[in-house]
Amino acid sequence: MTLYRRELRRILKSLVFLLTLAGMLLFAYTQGVFPSDSVISKPEANKSYGMKASNDPQLIMPEAAEHLYGQFRANEYITYPKGFYKKVRLSQAK
Prior knowledge:
Elements: H1 2-13, H2 15-30, H3 57-74, E1 77-79, E2 86-88
Antiparallel strand pairs: 1-2
C-alpha cells in the first residue's frame, strides 16, 4: 500500500499530469461547463427575442411560390438527394 501511495504522489506532482489537468480545466471553462454567475431576467413585453418558424399557410404559400418561380426563371432547381445540396438545370429536351 505504501508503494501505491508513493507512486500516486509522484503522478499527481508530475509536470505532464499538471499540464493535462490545466488543459482539461481550460477546455471545460471555455465550453461553459462551469455554471455562470449571470442572472436570468424576466422577458419584457413587446420586445423582440429572436425568430420563430411559422405554421401559417397564408404566410408560407406565397413565399414558397415566389421562391419556386425564381428557380423556374433561373432554370436552377435546388434539390437535396441523400441529404446533400445539389443544383439541377433542365435541358431543352426536358
